[in-house]
Design a protein that fits this description.
Length: 565
């Protein structure tokens, strides 16, 4: 008998175009509506048809935000899915598939599942996905009513016949799943959350979008590039509601320069791209540094070099953002670890960018952007929109030297002053200069704001005891896997620090890491953040847990790595 009470991992596998994502989307919405904690993450192959895609849906007793290697139930829509996921299929994995899909394969927990037959019986072969969701609800013992309501709402515009046939397909799948659970002696005692709070089920792109809208963003210019395009499409959908100008540029060079032009005119501007697209933006970022024009840059990371693995995940663009652009000037780098954090950090990014007249980078990755989870209303932080512009006078100087390195920012047409900006080195009024003393002052002016930014920098989030001898450091999307691994291990001498801000680092971070054994966990091949910690504080990492396969860390492999440590 298989008994599930704390954690269930369900994976849907099939070719691109078979509806794997459609099935998972429907299931997580129904589960969430029933009050369960759910998390879903997706892997894509970079092709429109064929290949093998899979989506993992986790149902958990506690809120979890991480990928697991184990599969409890696999719904395979083709033979390739079983081959592709072979190293994750264990002796206790129950595999729902058609007979023909497992021929010649050693699958211990195979359940012949007539998806096509049930779909045809309901009215059409296109209902196979509806059958699949029904099966999962059946063997989990979760009421089908919420799914019937979902289908009625989803297909209401297509007529009563389509709705009733979908519900019939769901019922056939549900009864089959329930019967299978009884025959295989599957007991699921995992219960919904006792207290149902108001929650929003979203993906990472939506979280970034909500934060961007809340920040008062009024302009986006971008060229589509996976996995970052979701922010562009989200803002395009919301453009009319929130007065956002959306420009799909001809390339990334045009995108960053359009954003700088909008910012110069007083707009709150953002660009969204991936590593390969950002490489083209570097000259524009350097222009922003010289002209002191605020801009927010979102980089949805994916594996490189070059095209690399365009639909996979990695955290290898930290150095790219840290050292991007020629010359020396200030910048800020954020990397949210949760959706609530993404909403907050996008607001913070716009406020800091404008306050310090600098570029703020927000680093995410494919795993983060395409994952789906619920965010409680209480988790969402709304920050005030802080504008930092003055009404100019006829004596206005755009680059006036000040004690803190921040010149009053004017915009054209607001006041009597002329707002000059220049990519050359310039004097206080914005005229070209090659005077060595002025040059020295302007360089220091642009760098001096880093001191204030460091003092204002976010501190890392702590997991476990501050007295622990060994500290595991993570950043960005690895927050969920680190938190779950430490919660599972429950070792007194082991704690975690998750960094939502990577640069500049708060000086107080040194105290948290001094005299500790520091282990750094990150999805890249060299340990870029470990190197940064050493550069900033002289604290070398005693160990580095690294992965650069295009896959996220699984909870199991992080636990194994920490046990070895």
């Amino acid at each position: 008998m298989h008994h599930f009470e704390k954690d269930i991992s369900i994976v849907f596998g099939g070719a691109a175009g078979q509806g794997v994502q459609t099935i998972a989307d429907a299931l997580v919405k129904v589960l969430k509506k029933n009050g369960y904690y759910v998390f879903a993450c997706t892997e894509f192959m970079s092709r429109i048809r064929g290949g093998s895609n899979s989506t993992e849906v986790r149902i958990t007793e506690k809120k979890r935000r991480a990928y697991v290697r184990k599969i409890d139930f696999l719904v395979a829509l083709n033979a390739e899915a079983i081959e592709h996921l072979e190293n994750r299929i264990g002796q206790n994995t129950l595999v729902f598939a058609e007979n023909g899909h497992v021929e010649g394969k050693n699958v211990a927990g195979f359940v012949h599942t007539p998806f096509a037959e049930f779909a045809a019986k309901a009215g059409s072969k296109i209902y196979a996905n509806t059958v699949a969701v029904g099966i999962v609800l059946g063997f989990l013992g979760i009421s089908i009513e919420a799914f019937s309501d979902y289908l009625a709402e989803q297909f209401s515009g297509k007529g009563e016949k389509i709705v009733s046939e979908n519900i019939a397909a769901a019922r056939l799948g549900y009864d089959f799943g329930k019967q299978t659970a009884e025959e295989r002696e599957i007991a699921v005692s995992l219960k919904p959350a006792e207290t149902r709070v108001k929650e929003l089920l979203i993906d990472g792109n939506t979280a970034l979008g909500i934060g961007t809208v809340a920040a008062g963003c009024s302009f986006i210019s971008s060229y589509p590039m996976s996995p970052s395009t979701g922010l562009l499409t989200f803002l395009a959908h919301k453009a009319d509601d929130f007065n956002i100008i959306v420009d799909q540029a001809e390339d990334e060079i045009a995108a960053i320069n359009a954003a700088l032009g909008a910012s110069y005119a007083g707009a709150r501007a953002v660009v969204t791209t991936s590593g390969g697209g950002f490489a083209l933006m570097e000259e524009g970022v350097s222009l922003a540094g010289a002209a002191e024009v605020p801009v927010v840059v979102h980089i949805g990371q994916r594996p490189g070099p070059a095209t690399g693995l365009p639909t996979r995940t990695e955290q290898a663009d930290l150095n790219l953002a840290l050292y991007a652009g020629h010359g020396e000037y200030s910048r800020v780098i954020f990397a949210p670890g949760s959706f609530a954090q993404a909403i907050e950090l996008m607001q913070r990014a716009f406020n800091l960018s404008e306050k310090y007249q600098t570029t703020v980078f927000v680093l995410t990755d494919q795993f983060f952007l395409d994952s789906v989870a619920s965010v409680a209303e209480s988790e969402v932080i709304r920050l005030p929109v802080e504008r930092h512009m003055i009404k100019t006078t006829s004596e206005y100087q755009r680059y006036r030297l000040t004690g803190d390195g921040l010149s009053p920012r004017g915009v054209p047409g607001y006041g009597d002053g002329i707002v000059k900006v220049d990519s050359h080195e310039h004097d206080e009024s914005g005229h070209l200069t090659e005077d060595p003393e002025l040059r020295r002052n302007m360089v220091q002016k642009r760098l001096r704001r880093l001191e204030a930014l460091a003092e204002e920098s976010l501190m890392p989030e702590q997991f476990g005891s501050g007295e622990a001898e060994t500290v595991v450091v993570s950043w960005g999307s690895n927050r969920g896997v680190l938190a779950e691994a430490l919660d599972t291990l429950q070792k007194d001498g082991l704690a975690g620090l998750h960094f939502p801000q990577l640069f500049p680092l708060n000086p107080s971070v040194r105290e948290l890491l001094e005299a500790k054994k520091v282990i750094v966990l990150e999805n890249n091949a060299t340990g870029q953040f470990a190197d940064l910690l050493n550069r900033e504080f002289g604290i070398p990492a005693a160990g580095r847990i690294l992965k650069a396969t295009g896959e996220p860390f699984s909870v199991e492999e992080v636990i194994e790595a920490l046990q070895e440590v």
